[in-house]
Amino acid sequence: MTGPMRLTEGELIRRIEAIFTGAGLCKTQAGALARVIAAGERDGCKSHGVYRIEGCLRTIKAGKVAADAMPELAPEDGAIVRVDAQGGFANSAFELGLPVLEESARRHGLAALVINDCVHFSALWPEVEAIADRGLAGIAMCPSYASVAPSGGQAPLLGTNPFAFGWPRPGRDPYVFDFATSVAARGEIELHRKAGKPLPEGWAIDRDGQPTTDPAAALEGAMLPFGGHKGSAISTMIELLAAAMIGDLTSPEALEALGTTTLAPRHGELILAFDPGRFASRAGGNPFPRAEALLDAIAGQGARLPSQRRYAARAEAQAQGIALSAEEVALMDRLAREGLAAV
């Protein structure tokens, strides 16, 4: 039996990319997807790591993603950068649009990247972190498919609708947060189901609208928004900005088009980039020392800044390799060997 192992990030990317190219994805799609999955494992985010390969393969097998898609950059439109993902995964579309987004944000002070017709996979922190690494502040958001009941409702209507923010910290890891507007990401429900563990109270309702701690019942019913009406309102904002406003599918429309919640959803994504120096220039100040004073004051009270656990896991992985369990190694071996027949 295959045992646990440690791989460098590059080695893990190559193994995952080989699984996807073997399943029919073109190199552009497979490489972008492999990079974000490997980053999830590197940073200890198991809900967006190797575990997600199977779901991507199911989406490919079902013909719900364009395996040979080459994203296309639209002609310049002021501060709006548009990329048509051509029915492929969002990750390659973001990689294409990022340098143009940066240039536009430098020129205008702020810019928006609109990705249309994408199959969305992964957390949003890789995107806002990539923006912050270029010295810009970033916000990313997207709908999903209807799996969350609005506050006071009893049936799925909203998506898990993630929202992420990144702020550059020169010489330090950026300040980044990324969260679903549901109490938990759908991947967390799946992990509880696979582990046979009950959900915490307040995460979900069953198909009859009654509270449940059974992951299977939750997947048949609906998740709940975080913070009650506040999370519900933020989730609705994301539906309006990252779906209706950019001319793409809302979460109910995405579910209707897909017909299932077992595959990756197809919709759009909105990413905003800001140049902090440009915003502060007329006030005559440098925003970064003041931002550092605030963040240091938060940490000085003993509070943990978001993403600190990720960065600690990353440092360990970079020093010692990315740790994979025997089960994860066996899964990758099987998927590489059997391809789409494995799902």
UniProtKB/TrEMBL annotation:
Family matches, as InterPro entries: Mal/L-sulf/L-lact_DH-like_ah, Mal/L-sulf/L-lact_DH-like_NADP, Mal/L-sulfo/L-lacto_DH-like_sf, Malate/L-lactate_DH-like
GO molecular function terms noted in the UniProt entry: oxidoreductase activity
Keyword flag Ribosomal protein: no
Pfam family for this entry, one: Ldh_2
Top-level taxonomic group: Bacteria
Keywords attached to this entry: Oxidoreductase
Gene3D superfamilies assigned: 1.10.1530.10, Hypothetical oxidoreductase yiak, domain 2
Annotated family: Belongs to the LDH2/MDH2 oxidoreductase family.
PANTHER family listed in its UniProt record: MALATE DEHYDROGENASE, OXIDOREDUCTASE-RELATED
Designated name of the protein: Ldh family oxidoreductase
Lineage: Bacteria, Pseudomonadati, Pseudomonadota, Alphaproteobacteria, Rhodobacterales
